[in-house]
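Hi there,

I know you've been waiting on this one. I reran it after we fixed the sequence typo, so this is the corrected version. Both the input and the resulting structure follow.
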Amino acid sequence: MRSLTQFLLIVILLSPAKALFAQEVVNKGDVTIHVRITPIAIYGTTLIDIYKRSDKVEIVYARHDSTRFSEVREDTAYINASKNRNYSDSSQTAKLRKILKRYYVYDTTKVTIDLKKDTAYNKILQLMAQTSKKELETSKVGQRFVLDGFGFGSTIVTDKGTKTIGVRTPMPDSHPIIYNFLEETRSRLKSRLRH
């Protein structure tokens, strides 16, 4: 039951993103990747937006820092929605979460990469863009039992279309392309932020 709830949470979180990013237009050869990483605990969401344009990539990294609860408590929509709270009603939970997100505060960092100098990162971006949704989402090790972890949701936009991906805790043996993409992105963020 818990894995079904986690799956539904990923679907709920990605549904608005798909509609929003489906309208995004990119030129031939360009790639836009929007990533949402959500831990089991609702707080601590990380957002990563990657914009590949020609030979440059801009990575915008935003980590949930805090929530302005004093403002949430004054929001009439939140007050009304939480009066008769039913935790088993996923639509009500999604509505409350949507209201809460308006009050999230993110710590944001931007990094620019020259792909002429960093061809390895260009390759992993192209691999994410060209690999089918089914192949990215299918675990290479079959059924896994994950006690703790995080949800990985991504919308990938190319000139050929948009695909939305959702997986639970990608690891090197289960989802190698997604895992390598996350590790390569983390590595570039870490090295650029040190300088």
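Quick highlight: Confidence is low (pLDDT under 50) at residues 1-22.

Best,
R. S.
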